[in-house]
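Two proteins follow. First one:
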Amino acid sequence: MDITALNSTKALRKHVLVWMCLFFGSVSLFFSALNVFSGVYLLGFLEFCFSIYCLYTIHHLSKHALRFWQSVVMCVLVCIIVLYANYISEPKYGLFVWSFALPVLCYLLMGKRYGIFFSGTVLFIQSLILLSKSSPDPIVNLNMAINLLLAYVSIWTVSHIFEGSRALSSKRLKNLALLDPLTGAGNRLSMNHYFEVELVDKTNTYLFLLDLDYFKQINDKFGHDVGDKVLTEIATLLRITLAKGYVFRVGGEEFAVIHSFNSKDEALFAAEKLRETVEKTPFNIEGHAIKLTISIGVADYQANPSLESIFIAADKQLYKAKRLGRNKVYASSKEQLKQIEVPA
């Protein structure tokens, strides 16, 4: 599965922003020329600058990833232009209808939290503008106010519900793709996604690859249901013991932990503490007192500058720990680290 497919929300917002820039940029350029010829120079100038910004944004997004501030700036500029156009024009020209598009745009580009703030702000300011330009006929004012308010609130409500449902569905699909259904730990895809996308600073990153010793005997003696609960308990214990680390299930009874440490000695101390914690923790499952031990292989990013290489290095150390008696922690020696670092 492609890792980028997990960022569906960002891809959607980038797609929407590109098309909104294309649409609003073209419309603004047209109205800019129209307003300049009509003598409305300030609005025409604002619309011209906005169209230039839209073209720049399209060009920038064709080569770079979407930044959240770009969505915010787009919404702010559109809101300012729409509200200012309403402020300097009469209601009979119908420019207020552009306000109805703003909740949809804000929710699609920024999500629920910012969408509700921007939509509420636009409603408040637009109401003040229209009230300041009331018709002499109070019945006309009341009918117009009620219809505009209900139309805007209905669009706002639909936008809010749609974005909430879309975000929840996206989160559920992402969890299905990234989480191990049994233990709740991340899976291999989750580990790749975290390492390649989310982990920006990899300088002091270490990977612990650990395996439950003689786990097959637990399944054979107590049954697979008990074995599954043991795996769940281990995953929980790993998350608690290494609170700032990220836990992944990468095999049947094999787990990986990615964590940052200031030094190799600190990493080895944490791995040894983890091994000792598992050894001393009694697992009482369905009336069975089960004792467990784990073997751990440790590798660091500086000596292995890719997820694949760091995983292979940790796997070699794990194999050494199991071959030399299990319930041990092994990492590359300093001499080995130097030999690996020289070619890099």
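Second one, unrelated to the first:
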Amino acid sequence: MTEENRQQRTAMVLNERAHDLLLGHSFAQRQIGYIHTLEIDYGESMEQRTLLEVEVAAEKKRQKSSTAHHKYRAQASKQLHQVIEAAMHKQLEDIDSVIHETIGIQDSVPAILDILAVRSASVGRLEPLVKDLSWLGRELVAFVNLPFYRQQRNKHTSVKVDNPLLALRYIGLDNLKFVVPTFAVRHWMPHSTEPFPLLKRRLRDNSMACAIAAQEIAKLNGVNEVHAFTLGMLLDVGKIALVRIYLRIFELVWQRQVTKARDEQKKDLHTALLELKPDPLFLSTLLNKQSMKVTATVIEQMAFRYLPFNAVMQQLTTPLAKNDEYLPLTKVILKARCYAQYLSLSEHQLVESDETERWFAHFNFSKEELDQLTKCNFDRFHIQIN
């Protein structure tokens, strides 16, 4: 295997591992074959009493029954997920419904992001659009009144802002270019991601890290940092859609199947179905394989006039033609996504130093880029309010 192939394989494996981690630390560990501490053989067998012949027979019967039940449950899950997969495919074909009903993207949001992308932007042009978005108004007011920014805003008074339009002016156009996409993506996050309680937070943190990494890398490479930050923030919108759709359809299909099994008095099937929960392996694979394509479709439908994202998303979702090169913004986004995933895996001790070295080499990180990224705070904006 050549070094280039080794780097490519490492990048693919770590990308999959990062998706596994979204669903849970223990799930990610199981996927890479970690052994649970309680299952480690320390070389000494536990002393056990001799089983009577009747107990041996009973234990074999229990094991056989348990194995049969597990096989039955696995088959029930497979059939359930075949129905779910078909239902999801049908729903994803109606992209307008996905955008407006599933994710909840209002037309005013792309319009605001487009206005912020041009030099002729003004707070006056934003005001009527913000008026239509009550949730954004509330977020802007809460943001400008945070103690950290309140102190920046005025050194001499502690006046509290209670008007979204006034908050717009205090924050300023330059800062809004980073604040608005962040609040928008947070607003679109699923309200609940049970039975994966940390999924919502990890999606949010990953979006923030990807956007900030993209901004920093862009600045070092002469790429528009607003474009980089905004696309970095939007990159996981496909994951948001797929998580929402999967959890909703699972509940609907599962409930229907349970009711049907009960009414038809299929006791074994009913028992197996009651034990089923949303499958982390199915969802992780779904996010890994399909989320970027869904993001590309959503961004295309947002119909940005001034944000050059469609060509980048095309390169991120289809193999590069021979002799073609990645666009500068595509290179930035690939590196930013890699670094955001690295941060998450590193925090949970799920990536080794040699893997990291090959991963970064695959995306051609420069020493200057890595040095700059190690200095960054990926938890909040790098902005100042005057």
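SUMMARY FIELD: DSSP finds 19 helices and no strands in the chain. Residues 35-51 have pLDDT under 50 and may be disordered.
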